[in-house]
Amino acid sequence: MTNIEKIRQIIARKKLWDKTFAVIGLLSMLVGIFTLFALIIDLAIDGIPILSWQFFTSFPSYKPEQAGILSAWVGTTLVMLVTGIAAIPLGIAAAIYLEEYAQKNWIADLIEINVTNLAGVPSIIYGLLALGLFVYKLNLGESILAAGLTLALLILPIVIVTTRESLRAIPNNIREAAYALGASKWQMIWDHVLPYSIGGILTGIIVGLSRAIGETAPIITIGALTFIAFLPDAPIKGEFPYISFSWLMSPFTVMPIQMFNWVSRPEPEFQLNAAAAGIVLIVMTLAMNSLAIYLRYLFRKNIKW
C-alpha cells in the first residue's frame, strides 16, 4: 500500500467520524426540540381553553372557575422592571471596567474567577443572601424592590460575563484606529467598542432575564405571597408629581409562585389553571426576548462595517 493510499484511508476515516458526530449531534438536538414541543403542546391543550379576559383580570380565588392571574402577572412585570433597571446598567458598567480599565493583575484575575463562579451558584443561595441583606439589614421587607434586587443579584454575573466576552471579541484594530484619530478611552468605548459588541451584550441580557422570570426559590425565601387579592399602587398617577414609587414597597406575588400554589392543590381544575398560567409565562418570556432581539437587530443594522 502506497503512502497516498494510506493518506486517503486516514482522510476517509476522519470524514466518517465527522459525519457520525454530525448525525449524533443532530439527533440529540431533535430529541430536545421534540421533547420541548411535546411539553408545550400538552400545556397548550390543557391551558388554552382556560384563557379568557376574566382569567387575566381576576384575582386568585379558592374557587377554580373564578381564579385569575391579575396580581401574578402585574407582580411579575413590576419585579422584572426593577430587575432590569438594577442589573443591566450595573452589569455592563462592571464588565467595561474589568475589561477596559482594570489593571491585569492577580486582583483582576481573582475578581474574574469569583464572578464566573457566581454565575453557577444555586438561586436559593441568592435568596438567603437577599433575606439577610435586603429584608432584615436594609429593612426593605417583603416588597417588589427586595424581589427585584434579589433577581438582579442572580443575573448580574451572567450579564458581566457575557458582556466581557463580547468586549473581548472586538478586534484591537478598532481600538487602535480610534486612538489614532484622537479619541479618548471613553470615546473609543462608547462610539466604537459598545456598538459592535451590543449583539453579544443583549444576548447575555436575554439569557439572564429569561432565567430570572422563572425563578421561584429566591422569591419564596424573601417572603413573596402565595395568595394576594390586591394590586400595588400605580406607578403613574393623575395628579402631580404624576410618578409614584410607593409600589416598590408593596407586597407581591409572581407567576411561578401562583402556578406552584395551583399545582399543589388537589382539585384538577386548578391544574388546568396552572397550565394556562404557564402559557402566559411562556408568552411573557418570548415577548421580553423578542424585544431584546429586535433591539439587537436595530443596533446591528445601524452599524457600518
From TrEMBL:
Q: Which UniProt keywords apply?
A: Cell membrane, Membrane, Transmembrane, Transmembrane helix, Transport
The highest taxon in the source lineage is: Bacteria
Q: Where in the cell is it found?
A: Cell membrane
User: InterPro entries this protein is in?
Assistant: MetI-like, MetI-like_sf, Phosphate_PstA
Q: Where are the transmembrane segments?
A: 21-50, 70-98, 118-138, 144-163, 193-213, 219-236, 243-263, 275-299
One GO cellular component term noted in the UniProt record for this chain: plasma membrane
**Protein topology in the membrane:** Multi-pass membrane protein
Q: Which SUPFAM superfamilies match?
A: MetI-like (SSF161098)
A Pfam family: BPD_transp_1
**Which family does this protein fall into?**
Belongs to the binding-protein-dependent transport system permease family. CysTW subfamily.
PANTHER family per UniProt: PHOSPHATE TRANSPORT SYSTEM PERMEASE PROTEIN PSTA, PHOSPHATE TRANSPORT SYSTEM PERMEASE PROTEIN PSTA-RELATED
Q: What is this protein called?
A: Phosphate transport system permease protein PstA
Q: Per the UniProt entry, what species is this protein from, by scientific name?
A: Aerosakkonema funiforme FACHB-1375
